[in-house]
Specification:
With about 450 residues, the chain is of the alpha/beta class. It is built from 18 helices and twelve strands. Helix 12 packs antiparallel against helix 13 and helix 17 runs antiparallel to helix 18.
Length: about 450
């Protein structure tokens, strides 16, 4: 069997186990991540791991945990997407308080990664609705990645998680120690974390008598799953909601093919899904804001929304931060051309930073444009010489070209930069690797090019 056929079989196994949809043009990513997984599981080679994956009728928990931590995307941060923040404090919670005063509120953060989203919701509630104590608000946060859940339970984060932080929340609910931030115990009381596989596990029930949820948030998760799994999840999410309950995806995941079962509601330049009687509610009906006791801090924006069809995404005039986020999500989803177009827009606005040039470089690597990729990584490092992943990617290109001297320099630089990070911290852009594991990979590469 050819290597390509083996990698296709592995991708099918990953879809079976986790619902992941990895397109054929990304088979190189599968091979690269299998090598990382083999190192993590102490296999002599990735071929040995591949044999185990394909021969097992069902993977054991150790292999599931390792593969989920490497193949799932763990990128998230606090207070992501301003329209969602405005919706929570300007409409969802006020409506629940008005319609069912005194009733416990039930929220599920599905695919919560390392917990930033769930903690953000808890902080929004604690600050803006102080009458809602933890005993009156159930927030379940789940993810397939055990390592991410363990980090979430610790509640300790680096500055990387605060790309869109709001000072009135961070100063109130975090304690800083060195370069780390620890979430307050008061906020932790709102949330229960547990592992859950959207592709294979039964959907969890709330603690309410009807076992339903008021709000389900599943953002930047479904885009990585296969179409059949997305459709199945959409139906299950709908069934899991109370009448008029909210289902929130990211603004780049809006898709009528998958979510037509829900009604669409517009709020603060965002589009959101809601469980309703579609015979009585027009899908495109605009909703009016409900006056809130605690007025939202986020002012309404007047920018226009253009809604595109089925396979297309929402296109908006966004802030530089939103454009960066969308470019990254499109790149992760294999939509390299659209991601590159957004990056060009960011550059034209003068908003390009080290991370944007790094992302552009990875897009070029995917398309085997290595000379242009090197230039993109060079620009990334010019802005921020401590971008360890730009060094790592540059080293890989030079290694491929046979320039061992430059490859060695970049690998050593990357290793030096991560030296100040705690051993168990999950590294950004590495597929969920800890600093210790990523250092092992760098050391092996350094030995290989010496």
């Amino acid at each position: 069997m050819s290597n390509r056929s083996i990698l296709i079989n592995v991708s099918e196994k990953l879809e079976e186990e986790f619902g992941l949809h990895i397109k054929e043009h990304r088979l190189g990513d599968i091979e690269r991540l299998l090598k990382i997984a083999a190192s993590k599981l102490n296999y002599p080679s990735y071929e040995d791991l591949t044999e185990v994956i394909l021969s097992a009728s069902q993977l054991d928990i150790e292999h599931k945990n390792a593969l989920s931590s490497i193949f799932t995307i763990g990128e998230t941060y606090f207070f992501r997407e301003k329209p969602f923040i405005a919706l929570v404090i300007g409409k969802i919670i006020p409506e629940l308080l008005q319609s069912s005063p005194g009733r416990k509120i039930h929220i599920w953060s599905a695919g919560c990664s390392s917990g930033e989203e769930a903690y953000s919701i808890a902080m929004l509630i604690a600050k803006n609705f102080p009458s809602i104590k933890p005993e009156k608000c159930e927030i379940l946060a789940t993810d397939v990645n055990l390592s991410a859940i363990e980090k979430a339970e610790k509640g300790v984060y680096s500055e990387w998680s605060f790309r869109e932080h709001l000072d009135e929340y961070t100063s109130r609910y975090f304690t800083k120690s060195g370069n780390s931030y620890k979430i307050s115990e008061d906020i932790k009381q709102y949330i229960r974390f547990k592992t859950h596989n959207l592709a294979t596990d039964p959907f969890p029930a709330s603690s309410d008598s009807d076992r339903k949820w008021d709000l389900i948030v599943c953002r930047n998760v479904l885009m990585y799953l296969s179409p059949s799994v997305i459709k199945r999840c959409a139906r299950s999410f709908h069934d899991s909601l109370k009448d008029n309950g909210w289902f929130i995806t990211s603004q780049v995941e809006l898709n009528e093919e998958y979510f037509s079962i829900f009604c669409r509601e517009y709020f603060e330049d965002g589009i959101f899904y809601r469980k309703c009687n579609k015979n009585e509610t027009q899908k495109t009906e605009k909703v009016q804001e409900t006056p809130a006791k605690s007025k939202p801090e986020h002012k309404k924006r007047s920018k226009s929304i253009k809604v595109q069809t089925s396979e297309e995404h929402i296109v908006k005039e966004e802030s530089i931060i939103d454009l960066k986020k969308m470019a990254e999500q499109l790149a992760n989803n294999g939509e390299y051309k659209r991601s590159a177009e957004l990056i060009e827009k960011i550059v034209a606005r003068g908003g390009a930073d080290s991370d944007i040039y790094y992302l552009y470089g990875t897009l070029l690597v995917e398309q085997d444009q290595l000379a242009d990729a090197k230039e993109a990584f060079r620009r990334s490092l010019y802005i921020n010489h401590n971008n360890f992943m730009a060094h790592y990617m540059s080293g890989n290109i030079y290694m491929k070209e046979g320039n061992k001297s430059l490859a060695l320099n970049h690998f050593k630089n990357s290793l030096d930069i991560i030296g100040g990070i705690s051993l168990d911290e999950v590294m950004s852009h590495t597929g969920g690797l800890s600093r210790d594991r990523f250092a092992d990979i760098l050391n092996k590469l350094i030995e290989e090019v010496k």
